[in-house]
Amino acid sequence: LVDELAGKGASSSTLTATSPHTEVAVIMGSDSDLPVLKPCFQLLDRFAISYQARITSAHRTPDWLREFAKSAHANGFKVIIAAAGGAAHLPGMAASWTTLPVIGVPVKATHLDGLDSLWSMTQMPRGEPVATVGINNGMNAALLAARILAVGDLRVEKCLREFAEANETEVLAKDAELLR
Ligand code: RP5
């Protein structure tokens, strides 16, 4: 399913096995969050960053979330991306059980249009930070994870530079097109 969402037949992701080489854990509160994470999977695939996607809910599977987050560092993950809608306590709870950086993706899932999720992630009380991206912005979560990894990985740093250069080229081309 994750491979389908990422738009490819086979990727470095897996819904089952944990590899010591898998760098990013992408957790979500429900399979209904998957569409928001599609750009996240695509960006991680584009940068050839290994990831594992899992469904774990802070309120429906609290024991499983605790087990996953507590063992994430020992299992070789370097960053956790956590997407959730509504009260969105998933990234905050995960942050409390790991020293890994946790990136929250607020999901628009209720009548509050994602503001509930955004505020609950950004308003984490002092002591347990969650780096929160914009509502439904799975791509920025992947880019932020890449920036964290790039501190110690020149290959990923090169991917980020090339990504920025491609964006610049695209905007300049559109600007030139307007002048014609
Ligand atoms: C949250 O509640 C999930 O992260 C999701 O965004 C939202 C709705 O979940 P479902 O009712 O679609 O399973 O826990």
Automatic annotation (TrEMBL):
It comes from the Eukaryota. In the C-terminal section; belongs to the AIR carboxylase family. Class I subfamily. This is Phosphoribosylaminoimidazole carboxylase. It comes from Lepidopterella palustris CBS 459.81. The chain holds residues 384 to 563 of 575 of the full protein.
